[in-house]
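Why do we bother with holo predictions? Because pocket geometry can differ from the apo form. Keep that in mind while you read this record for 3-acetylpyridine adenine dinucleotide.
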Amino acid sequence: MTTRDVEIVIVGAGFSGLGAAIKLGQNGFDDYLVLDRGADFGGTWRDNVYPGAACDVPSHLYSYSFAQNPDWSRSYSHQPEIHRYLNGVADRYGISERTWFGTEVTRADWDEDTARWTIAIERDGEASTVTARQLIGAIGPLCEPNLPDIEGFDDFAGTIVHSARWDADADYAGKRIAVIGTGASAIQIVPRLGEIAGHLDVYQRTAPWIVPRTERPYLPVENWAFKHVPGLQNLIRGTIYTANESVAAGMTYAPKALKPVEALCKANIFRGIRDPELRARVTPTFAVGCKRILKSNEWYPTLDRDNVDLVTSGIEKITADGIVTRDGESHPVDVIVVATGFHVTDSPMFDAIHGADGRSLAQVWAESGMAGYKGSFVHGFPNLMLLVGPGTGLGHTSMVYMIESQLNYLVDYLRQVRERGLTRVDVSAAAQERYNARLQQTLRHSVWENGGCSSWYKDEHGNITTLWPGFTFVFRNATRRFDIAAYDVSTTVSAPAATPAHV
Ligand code: N01
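The structure, written out:
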């Protein structure tokens, strides 16, 4: 049963979906609905509540330019504060009234006859549909937890927790805990667990590069200044942004220029670990920047604790009471924490969205790789705009900057749709192909391509389909205006839209 028809549906109420809703309202596009399966705003910042969860981009840059926050309590924000910030912004702009929480999108189909999307949802356990002229996919790449393919998970008799689905009620204090993974999530969880675990084994498959984290609380006088000194927050944002962009240059065009970063990481190891053998085991063997560069002052000292062991012999299987490593050793454990990341290039939502020829994004991308145009549109999926789509991820600065660039593109797209009376907009195959060829060309000399690592930046074919290579201001310029020449557009509809029953 159709319960609602709107002009625009936004799926997801995280940074990008919330930002989209605000920008639509500000630009006179009021007929929209936000759908989110969670209970409030925040997306990944609502869901990742593991101990120590925090952002590794400084607070002043990791926030909307149009909703700056003089009240940040620290130079790097922790999850509860970012979550509160996003819900505060949503309140300020009145987005809750147009948001359906507890609503899971199970499928979306493009209907050529009506030139609309039919979106199947489950809301409070009831199935229904919403139809919309425009579908905005703000589903976020870091939302579907990825469980590693390790034999025996189902046999484990203790507690298994994924970092992105933290079980706050489980008992961790004094327990024998295993953490699988040494990525951005693990390096934040492990120091907190190391403080309370009876024993902690950290399973490292690949050692990450880690720079020191320059986090500190802000003094009241600083918060006063952020609020009252005109332009100060913009100046801080600009300074952080500029410093980060210099790292982008190294990552994309001259990985050797990142040697000073490597030296900084090595000094961090030296300072944090006393044992030379352990130092050697935590020293990465790939080029710095190839995987995300992590930030922590606590990781190495935690590995150096007496109740913490770094296990590098590889996991053979999981048994009822522990983990067996490839060297044949058994490690008894009460709790396994899985910090193995997300389904980035194989999100289940890609199976749910079906385009003009009936195929899903997952089916199309299984053949072509995860390709799109300006991270926003995918040929064959008319009137669907993705936020944080293919080729928009970053290894060096704030995703919020990329999101805001896409929001400019979104608003200009909708403006042109309205002004020109467009009913169907599909990026042309040729424009998409040219665009991706250029991206791949830029990536050729990058550290991600040549740095000797594997990462979630690559898809199953080894292609880098998630990252924006180069300076983010180039992306900002490329998305300033909706370049309609790259699109096949139509102003007609084959069949009139059925009148839906409103509730
Ligand atoms: O996940 P990851 P994450 N056996 O994919 C290991 C963002 N984020 O959740 O390196 C053993 O980075 C895997 O090993 P390897 C940020 O963008 C941001 O930590 O593949 N180990 C790796 O060590 C980040 O990049 C913040 O060899 C296995 C780990 O699991 C993204 O989220 C904070 C394994 C996965 O690391 C994801 O981070 C947190 C196996 N079978 C996260 N399979 C901020 O501060 C995987 N691993 C903004």
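The pocket of 3-acetylpyridine adenine dinucleotide is lined by residues 55-56, 142, 148, 150, 163, 180-186, 203, 205-206, 292, 315, 339-342, 454, 456 (CB under 6 Å).
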